[in-house]
Amino acid sequence: MAEPQPSFDPAKYKRTQREQWNKDGAAWRRWNPTLDRWYGEATRLMLDLARLQLGQRVLDVAAGAGEPAVSAATRVGPGGHVLATDLSEGIVELARQVALERGLGQIETRAMDGENLTLPDASFDAVLCRLGLMYMPHPVTALGEWRRVLRPGGRVAVVVFSTPDRNDWGAVPAAIIRRRAQLPPPGPGQPGPFSLGGSGVLAGVFRQAGFADVDVRAAPAPLRMTSAAEYVRLAREAFGSFNVMMAHLSPPEREAAWDEVDEAMRRFESSGGFEVPGECLVAVATK
Question: Domain 10-164+187-224+278-286: which topology?
Fold first, then answer.
């Protein structure tokens, strides 16, 4: 008989997420140039589909260390407004620093739960979320909140990862770590990098949240670096979920897992460097 799945605790999960991002935030900013190149095409498509215009008010949920809030701010101009929110206070502070460095006074930052916005109804022209929705325990609730704060005719645009078979950058290490840590596979509906990537899943949560005109498009997102070793440094420093999965392992066991990841990822090296497949889904809908 199969072992029963441990019950999923959304509140505990969010606390762990906040703690991990507060811990890893500085590393995330250090790797920002690499990450922005990686997600660049998907980010541009998301912003294009959101149809941002000068003077608009934009909400960026799970904003990370400044993107896509900065790109959105350049599109709405000095007369516009971008509110960058994130569950992690540390990440929000990094976004605030980036906005100050760029002289983007139209960016405001606040720590806020994307599933429970402390914002008035119909107060934004667009809502953006790059690679955050799939980590939320209740994505339908989140989208319902984003729809609530949108003005009539406003647009929600999101980016998520597609399926594991199209994202070796994450699927290969996760399989190794899960085996070594003796973790069960994710339960149905459990948040994670590929939780919204299945056929029709992303469009389905939009429809459950009250959106009727959902457009979902695939965007290639290969990760290019100098070597597998550089990829492992990125993963160790900035991919908090891998570290959470290994939290109960001893330091030697964690090192052995990372050594195996390094070995497995070397197959993506060539004379031209390192390139591992990745794919995002970009979805947009109008209120």
Answer: Rossmann fold (3.40.50)
